[in-house]
Description:
By secondary structure, this protein is of the alpha/beta class. It contains 7 helices and 8 strands. The protein has helices at 2-31, 57-74, 91-99, 131-147, 162-165, 182-188, 191-207; strands spanning 36-41, 51-52, 55-56, 78-81, 104-112, 122-126, 153-158, 171-178. A 6-stranded mixed β-sheet has the order 4-1-5-8-6-7. The chain has a two-stranded antiparallel ribbon with strand order 2-3. Strand 2 and strand 3 form a beta hairpin. It binds zinc ion. Residues 42-43, 49, 57, 110 line the site of zinc ion.
Amino acid sequence: MSRWIIGAKKDFKSGLWCALALMTLLTAGLSAAPLTILLDAGHGGKDPGAVHHGVYESRVNLAIVKEVGRRLQSYGYRVAYTRQSNIYLSPSQRASMAKLYQRALVVSVHCNGSRYSSSRGVETFTCNGYGSTSHTLATKIQKRLVKLGLFKNRGVKRGNFAVLRQHQHPSALVECGFLSNSYDRAKLKSSTYQKRIAEAITQGIRDTALKK
Ligand SMILES: [Zn+2]
């Protein structure tokens, strides 16, 4: 009888230690959740975005995003995409995907369009709130894009986009140039320049220096 009680006590004690060890491990796991870079190619499907002279924004965005993803993976980043084909997703659906990750950085890629064909250049948007990381991310990406020497610098701006606003992760939205401007469009539709733009965005994300 007494041996049974001692044994039960021992079991209880070791069970308690196991539970404590498990909780410690879980807590450590939570604080060190891996970083996912969620890449969002703007528009798609029934929503082509800006279309000028046969160049579709949705296609250009996707081509750039895929190049960014490949590059980030080669640097050891975990990469996820909101879309990898020509499908329609609402802004809320895109933001919901961001919520699936415990730790993420969201980069949405777009091209601009304007009724004024003289409007040109690159600009990066950040959202109100969610700390300084969003601003750092937007600033680093913009800096790298401007450094390419291809686009006029329109600066870092604040934008109220759902894909930036409806989740808790640091995020930025890049407008890679104007499809409505012949100079920018010539760059944006070229796969060679798309790769250079993708490289700049990739380096901007790396410059943000978040722990993987
Ligand atoms: Zn767009």
